[in-house]
Write a structure and sequence with these properties.
It is built from eight helices and no strands. α2 packs across α3, α5 crosses α7 and α7 runs antiparallel to α8. It is found in: Membrane.
Length: 255
């Protein structure tokens, strides 16, 4: 009799616990359903609508940027090559139109060749930089990226740019680099650290090439002017050397 009474109490306790759990689940489901109904019936207001990023609220510009991002995800290398060619073409056209000389298509072809050759390595570099130096401190990560970019990429790229310009123009490569690279590195400190920091902080990775390309139009225009000034300086020095050699030759023949 005692055993049956104990068994009856245990079964009754289990049934009560089961009923209690069922009631809790019903209460939770009814609350979630009522909350969903309230959310569905809620009138959209500025307080309950999530704010879109700035670049997603620019209308046609946003659509163009999204189309560019889709093409870049499908064919990143081809997209980067075309972006670099457009950037260098626009920069060369601005630099030549700002001068007093006639348009030189050879200079444009030279710029397109230099930009096309550097497009893929530059893309790979910034892709690697975006995935590297990611520390727990966001400020440390950003500062390291900017420092490494200025320390490694800027001198190498500027030396390549001015060296190729001199090589394709038939000038002395080392002398041309000495006249242009130090000045370009110093002036790059006024622009590219801020651009790099802003890009890695606010610009999504698929739009960074577009953002950098827009800034690069102005920067490449400056490099074109600097390269042209160095070419003119080299031509003047060469002319002075030729004149000195001619005068010395005439003096020796007169004697």
């Amino acid at each position: 009799m005692a055993v049956s009474s104990w068994t009856y109490r245990a079964v009754l306790r289990r049934q009560l616990n089961t009923l209690r759990l069922m009631r809790q689940r019903r209460g939770q489901s009814s609350k979630s359903n009522s909350k969903t109904a309230v959310d569905e019936d809620q009138v959209p207001t500025p307080n309950n609508i999530p704010t879109l990023p700035f670049w997603q609220r620019l209308g046609p510009l946003t659509q163009a940027a999204q189309a560019y991002a889709r093409v870049q995800r499908r064919r990143p290398l081809t997209t980067q090559l075309c972006t670099s060619l457009v950037t260098y073409f626009c920069s060369d056209m601005i630099a030549q139109n700002a001068g007093d000389e006639e348009y030189d298509p050879v200079r444009t072809g030279r710029s397109l060749l230099i930009g096309g050759m550097s497009s893929i390595p530059s893309y790979k570099w910034f892709l690697w930089l975006s995935h590297s130096f990611n520390y727990s401190s966001r400020i440390l990560s950003l500062g390291t990226k900017v420092f490494v970019n200025q320390l490694c990429f800027t001198p190498i790229f500027n030396s390549y740019f001015f060296g190729m310009q001199a090589l394709l123009a038939g000038e002395n490569v080392l002398e041309h680099i000495k006249r242009t690279v130090p000045t370009s590195i110093v002036n790059s400190l006024k622009l590219w650290p801020a651009v790099t920091a802003f890009s890695f902080t606010f610009v999504p990775i698929e739009f960074r090439s577009v953002f950098a390309g827009v800034i690069a139009v102005g920067w490449q225009t400056y490099l074109m002017f600097l390269n042209r000034a160095a070419e003119e300086e080299g031509a003047r020095e060469h002319l002075v050397i030729e004149e000195s050699a001619t005068v010395a030759k005439l003096q020796s023949s007169a004697v």
